[in-house]
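Dear Dr. H.,

I hope your travels went smoothly. While you were away I took the liberty of generating a structure for the chain from your last submission, since the lab meeting agenda had it listed for discussion. I wanted you to have the full record in hand beforehand rather than looking at slides cold. The sequence, exactly as received, is reproduced here:
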Amino acid sequence: MPLPFANRTEAGRLLGEALMDYRGRMDLLVLALPRGGVPVAAEVARALEAPLDLMLVRKLGVPTQPELAMGAIASGGAQVLNADVVRALSISQETIDRVAESEQHELERRETTYRGTRKPPELAGRCVILVDDGLATGATMRVAARAAAAQGPAELVVAVPVASTEAVGLVAEQADRVVELATPEPFMGVGAWYEVFTQTTDDEVRALLQEAWQRNPSAG
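The corresponding predicted structure, in token form, is as follows:
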């Protein structure tokens, strides 16, 4: 797979091609991890002619290094900690709780901002594909997969354009299948493998969701 990807849209199209064996399944549901995962997942859902919705997850960043994940939380109270980071930096439970509380408020804000009054989709008995723009530590996707698995899907797939080998191994423990287009070494972070990696805005997320819901309203 040639790297870098031009942008998230191109990466999503390529990822959709890699997932074509799922096209036509009546139980299929694509769930994006906002915000960066939404442009990728929108292209996957389009390619597979599948409904699109969200799996709301928030990274728990180390206070002194916000981009470094010490864990993640998801709707419904699921939490995963990156034990190696917590141990290496001697992060206290008090710090974890403080960051988790702050991120919980943001998670709830996004729930309202993106979905409005629309109810979250039912995952039980469905083939669920979780999509993000990449996996670095894998902490965010691990908690997303854990939250999804708790609802009893028939099959749980994690799909990303690019990932670290370590993250793929960790996420594979939570999912039935992991699909990644590239696992470059050394990894150097998700953004290093995109020519354009600007922050996805709330407006862009809403627009992509509305377009997908109009095209295929059966996510719920």
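Two observations you may find useful: The chain has a mean pLDDT of 93. The beta strands are 28-32, 52-54, 57-62, 65-74, 79-81, 127-131, 155-162, 177-182.

With kind regards,
E. W.
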